[in-house]
Amino acid sequence: MARLLARIVAMNDGWARPLGEFNRRWVSAIFRPIRPIKDLLNGRWLGHPLHAASTDLPIGLLLGAVVLDLVGQPAAADIVLLATIVTMLLAALAGLADYADTEGTALTRATTHSTLMVVALVLLVVSAILRAGAPADRTVPIALSIIGFLIVTAGAFVGGDVAYVLGNMVSRHAFRGAGTKWIKLDTGDVTELASLPEATPTKMRAGINDLVVVRLGGTVHALHAVCAHAGGPLNEGTIVDGCVECPWHASRFRLTDGLVRQGPSVYDQPSYEIRTAEGGGYEVRRNAVA
């Protein structure tokens, strides 16, 4: 069954891929000048992707509307359907904010997901309009709501693949151990961290982990070099207001502790403390997660 469903979803990639590339351009252009609003919709303030947290509302409400229709409670069903439409629109706004920074196969599947949701929303709006006329025969609006629910279910399945199969908006450090041991820092050609250029990201290595090391004044900071949002190389980023900005999607992380200060990332970046090793050189240890 899983392979069959995967093939059915993949059959839509032919039209979804170019549509997704086109859509991402205009969505990005809309959000670019209103980054604080985009951060709000991404869910940085929540520490969790807002779209994923908000989609349960319309799905649950729509199921409630269908059940109320089937048990003969038209007034209640109409009210719940209106609530469904409103929460679908709010969830869609959060989804668009994530969509602006989605790429590759995840973008293609997100396009299929969003297209299904838009079709379902249109059907639900038509159903609500028909209900507003208080028809004696409610067969058509009820049928539209049921069809809309089935399409929403299909869209939710594809949306789940975007997150759980393709890892979109999943922290790139979700399965990385916290670490309690001091590890030797491979500084490459650098012998003294105090000689690092001011506010210039430098890539170094600690065991299997790539770090971005930055000197600001007399203090040297270290964060993991892989951006928590989409895996961008922070060592190729820039320093802005005491933060390192990812070169891929402009997420910013505070150098002192890795706290995310600008989305689209909603997750903090692992930070490291540095000390001089007894035998010479330097060693690092990941700071405890708050």
Entry summary:
This protein is α+β, with helices and mostly antiparallel strands. The protein contains eight helices and ten strands.
Note down, in words, how this protein is organized.
The radius of gyration is 24 Å and the shape is elongated. The chain contains 8 helices and 10 strands. 48% of the residues lie in helices and 16% in strands. The protein folds into 2 domains: 164 residues; 104 residues, Rieske Iron-sulfur Protein. α2 packs across α7, α5 packs antiparallel against α6 and α6 packs antiparallel against α7. With 290 residues, it is α+β, with helices and mostly antiparallel strands. The two termini are 42 Å apart. The mean pLDDT is 95. A 6-stranded antiparallel β-barrel has the order 1-2-3-4-9-10. The chain has a 4-stranded antiparallel sheet with strand order 5-6-7-8. 39% of the residues are buried. β3 and β4 form a beta hairpin.
